[in-house]
Description:
The protein is mainly α. It has helices spanning 4-15, 20-37, 57-63, 84-97, 102-110, 113-118, 134-143; strands at residues 18-19, 47-50, 53-55, 68-69, 131-132. It starts with a helix and ends in a 10-residue tail after the last helix.
Amino acid sequence: MTTIVDVAAHILRRYGSMTTMKLQKLAYYSQAEALSHRGTPLFDEDFQAWRGGPVCYDLFLRHRGRFIVAATDLEGDSVHGLSSADASVVDRVCDRLSSCSGNELSERTHREDPWRDMRKGLSLSDRGSGVISKDAIRRFYRVNPVLDGAVRS
C-alpha cells in the first residue's frame, strides 16, 4: 500500500524542495482529493489538527528539525513509486496548489471544518493532536471540492 512518505517523495521529486508546512498541506489536500472523489484514501496514515493546520505525524518524524525538505531527505525510507492513478490525484492537486505558500495553504485549512472541528475549545496558540478522521475529510471535501476556487498555476 502507498504511504504518506511515498506521496511526499513524489511531490518533492516533481515539484522540488519546499517548506515542510507546504509539503504537509499538499499531502493533506491530495488525501482529501482521493477521499472525496474515489472514496478511498491514498494512504493509511492520519492527520492531526496542529496549530499550523493538518500534520501527519509519520511524515513529521521524517522532516523534524528542518524548515525546507527535499526528495533526497526521504531517501532510505523505503520509498516506493505511486501507481498511475495515485500519481494522477497528487499531480492534479499539486498542479493547482503548488503555487501557494505553506502559510497560504495553512490559512486555507484554518477556514475548513475538518481542522476547525478538531480544534474546538482550543485557542490558535494551543497545541492540538486530535485526529482528523478520514470520514470527516471525505464528507467535507465532497461538498467543498479541494480544487474549487484554487489558485491556478
